[in-house]
Amino acid sequence: MSETLREAPGKTPGKTQVETVGETVGKTLKDDAPEPGESDLEAACRVLETEARAIDALSATLDGRFVDVLDVFTKCSGRIIVTGMGKSGHVAHKVAATMASTGTPAQFVHPGEASHGDLGMITRDDAVLALSNSGETAELNDIVAYTRRFRIPLVVITSGRGSSLAEAADIALIMPEFEEACSMGLAPTTSTTVMLALGDALAVALLNRQGFSAEEFHVLHPQGRLGAKLIRVEDLMHRGDEVPLVEPGTPMSEALLAMTNKRFGCIGIVDKGGKLSGIITDGDLRRHMGDALLAQTTDQVMTANPKTIGPHALAAEALNIMNSDRITSLFVVEDGPPVGIIHVHDCLRAGIV
After folding, report:
1. Which domains are delineated in the chain?
2. Residue 304: which of 286, 277, 274 has the closest Cα?
3. Fewer CB within 10 Å, N side or C side of the chain?
4. Taking Cα atoms as reference points, which of 327, 289, 293 lies closest to residue 308?
5. 1 within 8 A of 24, measured Cβ to Cβ
């Protein structure tokens, strides 16, 4: 009952290829109709188990044709146009968004709108990824015809092995046979889950091929918790005149004024070579509190070899150091000299937790 990836019967080699990404799993994906008296939790578990088995069947049979799709998308100089109707359209929206956010330019085009002018969004430099469980979605006809007319690569994800869509495609990724997880076996559940998983697999595989970095990810995710996790110290640190610094031998009376004006609760001591040799914090002041404090110099009060961090480190790392050592500020040092200072409040305002 299973079929490996092969050329569609009657097709010219190198043109339309029907791919079996998931084998027919027959009895493995048995009819999961609910038993009489099924509880809420039993129903939920049955849904999850049904969908999990379908994804297992899909992953077990991925092979060279999946790689062929990656080749097509990698060579595409334009965008990946993802399309689908109904529930498949919702999945297509998400697949396009995931690709776009991980370094593969992509856009969703609604098949209905495409028939009324949005075909102009698809260029000859693009490639099309069409999603349809049955492979007989009439609303996709105009997009399919457009790709054939202008020789735009067409990849489809479908369960319809011999469907019109699979026959028209350059490469068809055929999903395994499965039961929909709803009690009637009708509502798109397992089918959309498998589509989404396969779309994610394509997006991540493309990400790996392109060597998409964390820095590039941050460029596309500047807001929210994803972006916050990738903010670097240099993006948040205070620079120049904002950094509280004095020289060794400075009287504490002057150092206290500088420390108060800068409002970081600390001050750095920079030696003649420009390197940070020590730091004075509120804690140091309390330890040296007495009538003679103002008569002392920074050398006598400072703590040598203070905690520091580099400008290219993640801000989350700086926050972790400050929390672990129960301090509120870190001097930012690059090759010895201090180039900035970062405060715990800078991290919190940026959404780093």
Report:
1. 6-212 (3.40.50.10490), 233-349 (3.10.580.10)
2. 277
3. N
4. 327
5. yes
8 Å CB contact between 280 and 239: no
pLDDT digits (tens, 9 = 90+) for 333-346: 998 899 999 999 99
pLDDT at residue 172, rounded to an integer: 94
Task: Give the whole-number percent of the chain exceeding pLDDT 70.
Answer: 84
| Chain Cα centroid distance, residue 122 | 25
* Dist. CA 160–CA 89, nearest whole Å: 17
Number of helices (H), then strands (E), belonging to the chain: the values are: 15, 14
Three-state SS at 275: coil
At 349, phi and psi to the nearest 5? -65, -30
Residue 296: count other Cβ atoms within 10 Å of its Cβ: 15
> Residue 295 has which token pair?
């008569």
Q: What is the pLDDT of residues 65-100, one digit of tens each?
A: 899 999 999 999 999 999 999 999 999 999 999 999
Residue with tokens 């010895």, as numbered in its chain = 336
**Contact present, 81 and 129 (Cβ < 8 Å):** yes
140, 85 Cβ separation under 8 angstroms: yes
User: What secondary structure does DSSP assign to 50-108, as a single string?
Assistant: HHHHHHHHHHHT--HHHHHHHHHHHH-SS-EEEEESTHHHHHHHHHHHHHHHTT--EEE
pLDDT at residue 213 in the model: 60
CA-CA distance, 23 to 300, in Å (whole number)? 76
Class of residue 125 by CB neighbours under 10 A (exposed 0-12, middle 13-18, buried 19+): exposed
Answer whether residue 235 shows pLDDT above 60.
Answer: yes
Chain centroid to CA 330:
29
The HSE-up count of residue 319 (CA atoms within 13 Å, CB side) is 19
- Altogether, the residues listed in the chain come to a count of 353
Say which amino acid occupies 136: E
pLDDT tens-digit profile of 2-23? 333 333 334 444 444 444 444 4
